[in-house]
């Protein structure tokens, strides 16, 4: 009986561990916009002393985090205070890592391109601006996440990322006009295996596309079928250097300024 119990506990722990997302570290991601969409540069313009902080959570915290989220959603409007936005961002990111639910990624994106970036226009280096800047810097390290050899793309900005895989890290380029233009492109640049690597991609969809699967997604120019899981378009393929995925969001998030 004790052996069976031990086996059940082991399997439970294994399943929990396999379900959790692991954010790709900010230091593995290079952002390269020349405007406010470059979250790293925008944050460091406020203070060169800032360093990215990794956002982590464990399964034992899930119920408490969900209760905190339910309380937060009693006031669902996007916060106007950078302090409140930073707290909600951290909560959403931890829940995303535990649930792989795109609604939390969508909330994170709205906070980034709402109160957090708006605070960067404040000419005074206040505690609120530093908090917003630190959160933006941390956000770079939540753009991508992995679960085994599955890659989750949570929000879109111009970046180059060294992405973990069981067969070796590969270089993924995100090329986009977001948040000012609709086009999103992912390009596989460098891979340890030139013949290609089997990878499942989960691409966060616009909220209106979570059920009907009408948004066209193209792989190497071909309209590609996908399934939707928790707000992500899921595509599995053997990807080779030079392969591309692209699609268009229905509308930009911000007006050009």
Order of helices and strands: HEEHHHHHEEEEEEEEEEE
Proportion in β-strands = 15-25%
Structural class: alpha+beta
Span between termini: 67 Å
State the low-pLDDT regions, or none.
Answer: 1-17
How helix-rich are the residues, as a percent range?
Answer: 25-40%
Which strand order does the major sheet show? Answer: 2-5-6-7-13-9-10
Instruction: Outline the biggest β-sheet.
Output: 7 strands, antiparallel
Mean model confidence by pLDDT: 89
Give me the count of strands.
13
Global morphology = globular
Count of DSSP-assigned helices: 6
The radius of gyration over CA amounts to 19 Å
Describe the protein's architecture and organization:
With 257 residues, this protein is of the alpha+beta class. Helix 4 (82-99) runs antiparallel to helix 5, helix 4 (82-99) runs parallel beside helix 6 and helix 5 (102-119) packs across helix 6. It contains 6 helices and 13 strands. The strands form 2 sheets. A 7-stranded antiparallel sheet has the order 2-5-6-7-13-9-10. The chain is globular.
